[in-house]
Amino acid sequence: MGMTKEYIEKMDVQLKKWDADFEALAAEGRQVALDARAGFYERIKTLRVGRNAAQKSFREFRTAADAAGADMHAGMEAAWESMRKALEKASAELRK
Predict the structure, then answer these.
(1) pLDDT, tens digit, for every residue of 57-72?
(2) What are the φ/ψ torsions at residue 3 (nearest 5 degrees)?
(3) What is the C-alpha separation between 77 and 67, in angstroms, rounded?
(4) Where are the alpha helices (DSSP H) in the chain?
(5) d(CA 93, CA 90)
(6) What pTM was estimated for this model as a whole?
(7) Tens digits of per-residue pLDDT, 32-48?
(8) From CA 77, how far away is CA 80, in angstroms rounded?
(9) How far is CA 22 from CA 32, 43, 73, 93, in A?
């Protein structure tokens, strides 16, 4: 169970970081020109949908039995990697 506990703690920290990243992007959005603001917020909304999906997978992982947890690990990794890439891409695009 040690590895699962460490993994859960790692993912919990990552979710909190993403929340902080979203808040930082939202704060930047308040500073952009009015005509660009709607698109900025729409992009953040899309990212939050992905974050919510990753959080849902995380909750399922946390409640799964140890044996099932190992099977879900690969799916979790894919969801997290997808979210990480989407956030990096959106951040880069929104900060141009």
Answers:
(1) 887 777 775 556 666 7
(2) -65, -40
(3) 17
(4) 2-29, 34-63, 66-94
(5) 5
(6) 0.53
(7) 777 777 787 788 888 88
(8) 5
(9) 15, 10, 25, 14
